[in-house]
Amino acid sequence: MLIGHQPKPFLLAVEGLTVSFDGFKAVNDLSFYVEENEIRVIIGPNGAGKTTVLDLICGKTRATSGKIEFRGKELTKLKENQIVKAGVGRKFQTPSIYDDLTVFENLEISFPRGRTVFGALTFTRDATVRDRVHEVAEMIFLKDRLDMSAALLSHGQKQWLEIGMLLIQDPDLLMLDEPVAGMSVSERAKTAELLNRIIKDRSVLVIEHDMKFVEDIAHKVTVLHQGQILSEGTMEKVKNDPKVIEVYLGH
Amino acid sequence: MFGEYSIGDLGSIFVMQGFAGLILFSVYVLMALGLAIIFGQMGVINMAHGEFMILGAYVTWMTSNLFQSYLPSLFSGYFFLAMMLAFLASGALGMLVEWVLIRHLYKRPLDTLLATWGLSLMLQQAYRSVFGAREVGVELPQWMLGSLKVTDSIEVPINGVFVMALTVLITCAVAYVMYKSRWGRQVRAVVQNRIMAGAVGINTAKVDRYTYALGCGIAGVAGSAFTMIGSTGPTSGQLYIVDTFLVVVFGGAASLLGTIASAFSISQTQSTLEFFMSGSMAKVLTLLAVVGILMLRPQGLFALKVRK
Amino acid sequence: MNANRFTNRSELIGILVLAAFLVVILPLCLDVFRLNLVAKYLTYAFVALGLVICWGYGGILSLGQGVFFGLGGYCMAMFLKLEASSVENTKIQSTPGIPDFMDWNQITALPFFWKPFHSLTFTIAAVILVPGIFALIIGAAMFKRRVGGTYFAIITQAVAAILTILIVGQQGYTGGINGMTDLRTLKGWDIRPDHAKIVLYFFEVGCLFICIFIAQFIRHSKLGRILVAMRDQEDRVRFSGYSVANFKIFAFCVAAILSAIGGAMFALQVGFMSPSFVGIVPSIEMVIYTAVGGRLSILGAVYGTLLVNFAKTSLSESFPELWLFGLGGLFIAVVLAFPNGLAGIWQDHVQPRIDRLISSRKPKAESAWTDNSVADGAPAE
Amino acid sequence: MSDEPNKGLQSPLRRKLLMGAAALPFVSILPRPSFGAGPATATVNTTGLAVTDTEVTVGILHSATGTMAISETGSIQAEKLAIEQINAAGGVLGRKIKFIQEDGASDWPTFAEKAKKLLVNDKVAAIMGCWTSASRKAVLPVVEQYNGMLYYPTFYEGLEQSKNVIYTGQEATQQILAGLNWIAKEKGAKSFFFIGSDYIWPRTSNKIARKHVENVLKGKVVGEEYYALGSTQFNSVINKIKLTKPDVIFTDVVGGSNVAFYKQLKAAGVDLSKQALLTISVTEDEIDGIGGENIAGAYACMKYFQSLDNANNKAFVAAFKKMWGEKTVIGDVTQAAYLGPWLWKLTVEKAGSFDVDKIAAASPGIEFKGAPEAYVRIHENHHLWSKTRVGKAKLDGQFELIFETSDLVEPDPFPKGYQ
């Protein structure tokens, strides 16, 4: 299943990952590898375990067995906030932003400084912070909404804001769970543009259903089915895999 | 401390002490069942649970007075009617409360806590205005008094046996209703996915109302049973509320079996400790143990590991 | 907005209005007896202030604030009681020089944990540290295991119940249900006469404002915004690299320490400490002060406390029967109709009118009570 | 609450009419006395108390709400009855007693706060009030600081004496020792099991009882147990009682716990006609909740029972029921509360003044022959000389008098050899 030989080590290596909920194995002996600056899309039918894989990597769910190595660090033993500090960023399926804060404050909280209790108490909003927030806000098309309460944003804008909150963290591995779900056509186009811009200097792990969108961005596609890898490779290869056609694209 | 007692004495003490624990266990189960339904299934923190119980107790008291005045010949059987009336009265009040108050708060569990606390204060004052500040004594029919002599030194209180039998009966009934009946399936469906349940044609508002009413009704029966062993006053309900919540939480909120297991372990611990130290310290140690265990195992004794 | 780290201009006005009310208007309008009552109410305002941070901002509802109020109060009361139990004051006892309730309980020597309370410095440290560390332990145990919401509320309630039974049960060491009564002097200075009450009142108001400023500082720091963020989307905060548990523990400890300061003030003001402040009923009542004032409003907490207590005193003087109906109704009304309490009413109904009046002359005025950014949102869950 | 002083109404006739109207519900059938004929206010009130030419104000301070309302209601009723009767008989020094009632709400600091309000704002001449030891301990520093006069009705643990308090109930030795002596003699009791609620009064009482049992009666205490206030589960201690088989169960369980205790005792097959039980905490009030059938046969040891057969008591019971309803019962504390206003009136008249210092000084030696419990007298230590009685609980909730001390028992709040 491994593809080719790699001159440099993987950014993310998942090996033998298994998690079971009361006997039900949502992810079963899963192994895959993500390189630096690679864009990997995970697809698969509902219940294939896609979101669970992201949960496992970012520490939201604890693995029953298996290894997740990121830049040589074993993630399964770290706490969520330590995983974030190691350089993994995660966007959730439904936009999860802070409704009671302004767009500016939403972004500011994600700025990687003052993350301890006392750091937060003594945090000051200096020029570095302000510049960075403005820069990201511009990128996510929310430059003129900075003082607006985040609750008032549209669904698409909330998705962008969350992406922006990840960008300001500047992670090495960005994990996106259905970033264009529920968006209008024009928003979707804008999002694709945004994603294409931000995936430049980092690796990205995306879960997406929209095949057109997947084809646009994916370097490589992994197809999950019942917690296991069904097929892996370029979009072209996966598309023509008879197993995939049967369980997924077939209907 | 056992030196002074003979082996035979000790044997009967352990039997009787175990039995005392079983009575306490029944009391806890009765109290907690209604709450396990309301809190475990609906997520509502019903701080007025004790007051629903006391309503049942007052209904029992009124029924006993009525029988004494008008139907003295049937007095020996009044208790069964009283329990039914207690169920209906507390259930009806529960339904009203759900309609006026609770249904607006399903998304704000902490606010149900405050609102039902307010409700409990108002009910207490209402009881005080209607029934007076003094405790009322419920007279029991003759056959419920006294004890069965098992051996020379082992005696079993009849009302204790009655409470235990009642507990078993109600537990079975609740288990049947929640796990076997069509209505129980609807309740669980609503709990798991309100929107979906609504979409497949379950009247979620109605299910909520009847679930809450059922929980309150069971509290009423519990109150009725308590008149046999405890006191009935406007503020008696408050004494039970912390214990009851701990039983439910300790068991794992959504699990009926957990509630029973936790009631059993808490009651046996407390009743055993009471034999070795003063009642207040036994209570402190029991509560401390429960809180300590909850800190180590917050999900309680029985909890499902679910895919979030 | 947050140009200034502590407050913005309109909040400063709000604080000045409160200061004028407490420092000038009340002392001028009330006799010493009523002023002492206000002082007693204000001790609860410390608790309410803590609850704004912990519950309003952090979304952590503690039903055990009485525990910390009690711990603070008992620490202070132990010092005062020792001073009141000098050998010549207690020569009637079988063992002179120990508190009277110990003597009644056949205790013949001062227990070891009482001894350090001869020192005022130690006492003041204990007022802060004992509840603080206790909160740290509870908080760490609960929040590190992600216990929150209703479970946390129930467990804090159980802690309140345990501590009450313990204090009542260990009466030889604690004074039992009677509590510690007849506290007389602080370092030789009699705290009972009227002039002492007045001095203590102003001292307390001073402390209250220090605590208000601390609360303001926390709220306007990034930590305050993280608390709000956590209430909205705990996971998002966690996956932005924060240890959510540590922030919750911090908020809970701050609330505990503020409550404890309130309790110590109470012992000074009332000359009395009893387990009736530790239990569940007072703890829940303290939550209602915050709820009435507006759970998101620091100044609202003070007004809410004063209002509920004034209502309690006057209603229970004239219609004792009605008081419980009134209090119960207040709980329900605050939850159903006014989730943001007085501050919400002010902001939704009063402030816009004032704004309209002013706006004919001045262009802009901001809310004096709550931060716009937070008050807009739904109530905490 | 009574009417406010009406300074604007100068006409004596109008004033009298108004007063009559206020008192109408209670004393309309009694001849209406006229007030205002007493000695000049300036001479009888030199410390600025709320005394006018026609009125004197006292405070009533009990819990009308909260858990203690159950117990304190009877005291409030008795004090109001006494005040009505005193007014109907011409008042105090020619002045009508007006009362201000405050609610302590079962909360000790509230008691202290209300006591302060009564003394500082209302300037009451005396306070009839408090019930629990805790509320008295809270109020005591206040009455001492502001020099008030408190008439405290409950039997209590002793270890206290104040210039500013008259204790109209019995202190612990007064209540307990005679009862223990009686039961030791009558039942040949040698072994005792103590069970009480967990607070100062039961603990102190049991301490005194233990010393008496061990040192004087040469008996043995085979168990001593305490349960938190409000406990409702007594099965464990009942098992211990069954195991240790004491000659006497000695109880000072208070409040609602009593109901649970006696019901469970009965259910466990402890027959009170065979097992002697002596309680110092169950009065007719408590039996109302416990139910006569659950406690019949138990002995109670205190100074008053509703069934006492003397002319004073018959009149008192009749008046009480007339005022508060046929169904009300009267317990020991209720009677003691009734003594408060009367003792105060007698003291004021002896001192010829409302001044607290003079009343405090004049109190010792005051005799009240009209007491329902029969003759009582105030001791130097501000407690009452009174008889101690033992009653046996009957099915109808009343006590049958079994024994009474031949002489008045001397109050001894700081008993030597019992501390």
Structural class of chain A: alpha/beta
- Global structural class of chain B: mainly alpha
Q: Span from first to last CA of chain B?
A: 52 Å
CATH domain class name of chain A: Alpha Beta
Helix and strand element order of chain A: EEEHEEHEHHHHEHEHEEHH
Give the N-terminus to C-terminus distance of chain A in angstroms. 25 Å
Estimate the strand proportion of chain A: 15-25%
* Radius of gyration computed on alpha carbons of chain A: 18 Å
| Largest sheet report of chain A | 6 strands, mixed
What count of structural domains of chain A? 1
Choose one word for the global shape of chain B: globular
CATH topology of chain A: Rossmann fold
Strand order of the largest sheet of chain B: 1-2
Structural shape of chain A: globular
Under CATH, the homologous superfamily of chain A reads: P-loop containing nucleotide triphosphate hydrolases
Rounded radius of gyration of chain B (Å): 20 Å
Helix content of chain A: 25-40%
Number of strands of chain A: 10
- Largest sheet composition of chain B: 2 strands, antiparallel
Number of domains of chain B: 1
Give a structural overview.
The complex is a heterotetramer of chains A (251), B (308), C (381) and D (419). Chain A has helices spanning 50-58, 80-86, 103-110, 117-122, 127-139, 155-169, 185-198, 211-217, 235-239, 242-249, and strands at residues 12-21, 24-34, 39-43, 65-70, 73-74, 88-91, 173-177, 203-207, 220-225, 228-233. Chain A is α/β, with parallel strands linked by helices and 251 residues long. In chain A, helix 3 packs parallel to helix 6 and helix 5 crosses helix 6 (155-169). The radius of gyration of chain A is 18 Å and the shape is globular. Chain B is mainly α and 308 residues long. With 381 residues, chain C is mainly alpha-helical. Chain C has one domain. Chain C contains 16 helices and two strands. In chain C, strands 1-2 form a two-stranded antiparallel sheet. In chain C, a hairpin with a 2-residue loop joins strand 1 (185-186) and strand 2. Mean pLDDT of chain C is 87; it is low at 363-381. With 419 residues, chain D is an alpha/beta fold. Helix content of chain D is 41%, strand content 17%. In chain D, helix 4 runs parallel beside helix 5 and helix 9 crosses helix 10. The B-D interface holds B 5, 9, 13, 16-17, 19-20, 23-24, 27, 125, 128, 133-139, 145-147, 149, 153, 155, 157-160, 226, 228-233, 235-236, 239, 270-271, 274-275, 278-280, 282-283 and D 65-67, 69-70, 73, 198, 225-228, 230-240, 242-243, 256-260, 263-264, 266-269, 285, 288-291, 293-294.
